[in-house]
Amino acid sequence: MLGREAAGLDLDVCLHTRFGRTRETAEIAMAGRDVPLELDQLLDDVDVGALEGQTVDEYRAWKLEHTRDDAFPEGESLNDAARRYAEAFRRLAGSDRGSVLAVCHEIPIRYALNALAGSDELDGPAHEIPNATPFLFGEDALARAAERIEELARLS
Q1: Which domains does the chain have, with CATH numbers?
Q2: In the chain, is it the N or the C terminus that has fewer CB atoms within a 10 Å radius of its CB?
Q3: Per-residue pLDDT for 5 more than 90?
Q4: How far is CA 12 from CA 24, 28, 35, 36, 109, in A?
Q5: What are the CA-CA distances from residue 68 to residues 43, 53, 76, 95 (Å)?
Q6: Strand, coil or helix: what is 139?
Q7: CA distance 15 to 153
Q8: What pTM was computed for the model?
């Protein structure tokens, strides 16, 4: 579906994270097109460290007992990840790369959508982000999202 949605777009580059699924999705979406694929680790999913591979219930239980500033064991904090996403968005907004398709996990998208909606939290109101669904952001929107994400990371 993503390939169909992006077929009518003149894309200059397709970014993906270090996670294999995003690379595979990017390859499928860009199949038959002369669009270079590039790694952008700033868009990687949150590094949950020792919780990687654990159940969702274990992840949620840990999260309920900690703040957004607490790093996951051997990982990063949610606010550190938010600042990383803000850096990625700011860099994309200020680049001369042209039209970019970024294939990433749902958290950076959720954070951008909620920041742009003026939410007081990064996790809502938009929370369920469907897989392989494109969301369009212009340069100005990415810059505003980056600013608001950083602000919300400081306030929480």
Answers
A1: 2-47+81-155 (3.40.50.1240)
A2: N
A3: no
A4: 18, 16, 6, 7, 20
A5: 18, 20, 10, 29
A6: helix
A7: 25
A8: 0.94
